Amino acid sequence: MEALVCRKLGDPTTSVPSDDNSPVVLSKNHPIPTLDSPTSVRVQITATSLNYANYLQILGKYQEKPPLPFIPGSDYSGIVVAVGSKVSKFRVGDRVCSFVGVGSFAQFVVDDESRLFRVPDGCDLVAASALPVVFGTSHVALVHRAKLAPGQVLLVLGAAGGVGLAAVQIGKVCGAVVIAVARGAKKVEYLRSLGVDHVVDLNHQNVIENVKAFLKERKLKGVDVLYDPVGGKLTKDSMKLLNWSANILVIGFASGEVPVIPANIALVKNWTVHGLYWGSYSMHRPQVLEESMNELLSWLSSGLIRVHISHIYSPLEANLAFYAIKNREAVGKVVLVFEDKTMKSKL
């Protein structure tokens, strides 16, 4: 099978996967994974989503460091092509999606049936490939951790990225007043098309002044939930907008700077700080993940949420896909498509 194999750590944007010196090389004859248990399922991958964590993992800068060589990749969708002797939930031909620690940048992947989710009829498989990590992260953070309620004010930083777009949509489904922070006219325009209540363009607007003006206009006291995948100075500024008893969701540090949340102010204002590493839920709270994914797939099927695919590439164009991730070019998700060899990348 074809597979993108990380043979050494480095920047995958600097060379094409057909170059033997590239950190990530396209192998044409990689072994097809075997069914390793009676409840395992082999899936032929239709599409697999790229996340910033995948890029960091290839650089060697992610918290989980698999031994070399490894096949990167996390969330995916595809068709069941083989099942173990005790598999009861799926059969050959079923459409499924899921996520793995590594391994989805390939034509086939094997996973246990307990980790697979059936993609409802009518749902696009490419869109489903980009659902688990970003929408799963935002859903667990907002619904299970912050318990976002109707009428609360949600402030989403990095709102045009994968988890950010998921967060603003989930916020609207929950009935919150959603304020989105992004950079650039194209991203602002798309966020407005999603029905976001207010958008701050960091290219020419100050987040503190702008959000305070909006809150005053709407007669709102402040922000109840801060969704933060960015970190750095933007986090520090956003904390000046928080209500008493606000929830802070620490999702990531795309800015490269880990913010300092002052414990004395958190004490006085009764803030709750939630660290959210979504991947660890598969080990500690798998039932939460299952409930979350089933609700998200139901929302996707009914049109309550939509997965915006910004860029589509073939495996041979993986360097371009990672470049879009690295340089924040994507509005939404970047995916690799294995099934349709005629599909061309789009910018």
Automatic annotation (TrEMBL):
PANTHER family: QUINONE OXIDOREDUCTASE-LIKE PROTEIN 2, SHORT-CHAIN DEHYDROGENASE/REDUCTASE. PROSITE patterns: QOR_ZETA_CRYSTAL. It comes from Cucurbita argyrosperma subsp. sororia. GO terms for molecular function: oxidoreductase activity; zinc ion binding. This is Quinone oxidoreductase-like protein 2-like protein. Residues 18-336 form the Enoyl reductase (ER) domain. It comes from the Eukaryota. Gene3D superfamilies: Medium-chain alcohol dehydrogenases, catalytic domain (3.90.180.10), NAD(P)-binding Rossmann-like Domain (3.40.50.720). Pfam families: ADH_N, ADH_zinc_N. The lineage of its organism: Eukaryota, Viridiplantae, Streptophyta, Embryophyta, Tracheophyta.
